[in-house]
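Input for the complex:
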Amino acid sequence: MTAPRRPVIARVAGRVGGRVVRVGLVVVALFWMLPVLGLLVASLRPEASNAHSGWWSVFTAPAQLTLANYAGLLADRGVLGSLWNTVLIAVPSTVLVVVIGAFAAYALVWIEFPGRDIVMLGVVALLVVPVQVALVPVAKLLGAIGLYGSIPGVVAFHVAFGIPFAVFLLRNSFVGIPRDLLEAARLDGGRELRIFWRLVLPISRPAVAALATFQFLWVWNDLLVALVFADEASAPITVALRSELRQFGSNVDVLASGAFLSMVVPLVVFFAFQRAFVHGVLAGSTK
Amino acid sequence: MGPDGALVTVGPVGAQDAIGLPITGFDPANLPERAAAAELPERGGGLRGLVWLDVGGTPDRTGEVDAGERGMPGLAVEVVRDGRVVAAVTTGDDGRFTVPDLADGHYAVRLPADSFAQPFRGLTWLGPVLVTPVVISAWLWIMTGFAMTLIVAGLASIPRDTLEAARVDGATEWQVFRRVTVPQLSPVLLVVFVTLVINVLKVFDLVFVIAPGSVQEEANVLALQVWQVAFGAGGGDQGLGSALAVLLFLLVLPAMVFNIRRFRGDRS
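Predicted:
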């Protein structure tokens, strides 16, 4: 049997392909990491060095590297306070969105009630609504109930805007649970809450992990919502870094180290949940 | 900072004043050996002043002479009145200078631009022409990883045997990719596409942070404009802000319809 004729180029490509592709991918990956590397290096350089040359000069003069920026940052109560504010905003936002979203998705999938389909369509429609749409009315609302410029106000906004996606993602995961399993649990006399905790949540762990990761990263990196709803005392790190940008123009030492510090936490979270994240994100969307 | 890169005092300086001119953005390691500890001069005996490197002292207060900070020797100092240079001196080893015999009046003190290396200007090179491409490339950089994560997950769910069958039938890798992989992947690609479209319509922080104030208008987007008119400096026009938000909402409507249709299609 003779092999089908293939163009010479294709044959050559096939032979060296594997290695070339691999090298190419590594090059692209390294190239994609350049900005992060630049940020890291800039955060390790003293103010004076950043003022008169770019971070790449580290290759010719590595002696300039110092941890002074981080030391300064950790001694700065303002920066630490805003980092702590970010935690105070991101953690409750994530927990509330996951809990409320999971309850809602459970009801929408496993409990019959009138108007269920309309609610679900509403959730799907709300997925695409940009936050800007709600800024003005919610600002007025929070002002009226005295939550404007406080951490609970920021959290409330994040939770409200996180719930549609949470319900959508968890619903796609819950739908995949075999009906028989649930019926059996109900026949065994399990109450809904018990079924939810003992059966549905454990099965859907990847989806829950993906949702938690997503939500946490969004809230952690958010600038716009905090800019509108947080006052100076409740401002998270993104807002604090932004104000540094405006005040001094080019104090790269504070900005770079602050940005890197605020990046470390989401990175850790992402790598911790990376596997579940990738699987959970596509739950139900590839049928 | 003057228009030509020279350093000029802001307020008027009298003929008998003593002034301090702090310099930052200079590496202390590059100071000559002879640079002596900085100390503000006493008033009197003409216009006196100190040019010192305001970096690395203890405590490192900006604009104050702190222990450990040194003067900048050999620096040209010009005294200017009504745009004309009336006197020129050079700082001593301790960074101090004295200009005696000045007539009473208001002067400005200037450190000429040629004393300084051209500073690294950071983002100021982002002019009106470049700012939009730069914002776009930053967005590409961020979202590529996101899109790739989703697509990789989609690829993993494509059955291997269809690919193998195509290869056995003699298809080239390109043909396998183009005719087998991409069609099977198209639902995922569509989801990713719609998600990215929605995401780019909402883009706020990139434009807000990257574009320097002077060229922000050139790079402005709807999502940023909403914030600017409703909450930004000099804004507070919540009516206009709401109108812009409604416009933004209309723009995402097609994506909303697409999502609802797809959701209904999935269930039937």
